[in-house]
Amino acid sequence: MNAIYLDHAATSPMHPKVIEEMTKCMHDQYGNPSSVHSFGRKSRQILDRARLVAAQSIGANEKDIVFTSGGTEADNLAILGVANESTKGKHIITTKIEHHAVLHTTEYLEKHGYRVTYLDVDEDGLVSVEELKRALTDDTILVTVMMVNNETGVIQPIREIGELLRDHPAVFHSDAVQAYGMLPINVQELGVDLLTVSSHKINGPKGLGFLYSHPNVRLNPRQFGGEQERKRRPGTENVAGIAGFTEAIKLAQAERELRYEMYLHYNQTFIHVLKEEGVHFEINGNDSPRVPTITNISFPGTNVEQLLTNFDLSGVAASSGSACTAGSVEPSHVLSAMFTENSACTTNSIRFSFGLANNEENILEAARRVAQIVKRLTTN
């Protein structure tokens, strides 16, 4: 029985060309980029090229790119960096469906005197721009809204929020981890001041990401040491990893439209098989614009632990926003925000996410296995 990976939103396999680029770099370039000798200069050239590639992928200037250890650090640097630098207020606006890298950071700030407004979303998983507008005050220093939700794939109205904030002094941050590589992103057009990207979600190495920071945004650093990354993120850079990240960015940009259509086909094929097999299900956020890589499905009459265990035993890897602990299931915070905490779909929904490890054959096979399991569990 072949194992089938449908959890690309959690992490994605590294592209062979990324591995090749990293291996070459690890073999040939071991100088410290901060060193002035030839070994260091060669490593510095790799960093400079990487920064340019990253910047061009989002319509930014290379001086505005800060390499980090991943999306979580980038989110923390954006939120804490703005909060601790600002003297204009202590109000932050975010949403109830953000990644925990954002939510736990804002919760930390609440314990240190900041006031945070957590915006609701509707049953389609969308935040209201009008509600955000009503929440804005003269004391608001930061608005942080994700571009694509990591559980449902729902695309948030980032451009509209950017327009709203153009005449407000608040800094606008967006976690674009699940959007990057799937959607065209131009920070100037979107009006975004800070943008978070992760490497391992686009077939690059783990432990790397970047934060775009508009030149007018002042960030209080979260770490102290050397003067790397223009004093915004000290520490010797992971040159080989960044070389691989660069290759992943190049591939994602060159193949974005092709990948979009391919993953949309996989998504539609998966859903079509479930329907053909007579499975009863609902797609969470189905009436909202969504990226094709993620589909979040509610299977009435089941529960997350039961589903994930049986899927895994059948060789299908998927995931859920619900936290499974010692025989109980904590409801997904995203689905709880979309519906209610008592809604059955908060504990019977599974996220399937498509990517490099998939092809037509294993999508069909995975859908058949899932259908068989769901029908068996709902008839017992």
TrEMBL record:
It catalyses: (sulfur carrier)-H + L-cysteine = (sulfur carrier)-SH + L-alanine. Pfam families: Aminotran_5. Its EC number is 2.8.1.7. InterPro entries: Aminotrans_V_dom, Aminotrans_V_PyrdxlP_BS, Cysteine_dSase, EF_Hand_1_Ca_BS, EF_hand_dom, PyrdxlP-dep_Trfase, PyrdxlP-dep_Trfase_major, PyrdxlP-dep_Trfase_small. SUPFAM superfamilies: PLP-dependent transferases. The keyword ATP-binding does not apply. Gene3D superfamilies: 1.10.260.50, Aspartate Aminotransferase, domain 1, Type I PLP-dependent aspartate aminotransferase-like (Major domain). Signal peptide: none annotated. Residues 119-142 form the EF-hand domain. GO terms for molecular function: calcium ion binding; cysteine desulfurase activity; iron-sulfur cluster binding. Its cofactor is pyridoxal 5'-phosphate. Keywords: Iron, Iron-sulfur, Metal-binding, Pyridoxal phosphate, Transferase. Belongs to the class-V pyridoxal-phosphate-dependent aminotransferase family. NifS/IscS subfamily. PANTHER family: CYSTEINE DESULFURASE (PTHR11601:SF34), CYSTEINE DESULFURYLASE FAMILY MEMBER (PTHR11601). This is cysteine desulfurase. It comes from Gracilibacillus dipsosauri. The lineage of its organism: Bacteria, Bacillati, Bacillota, Bacilli, Bacillales.
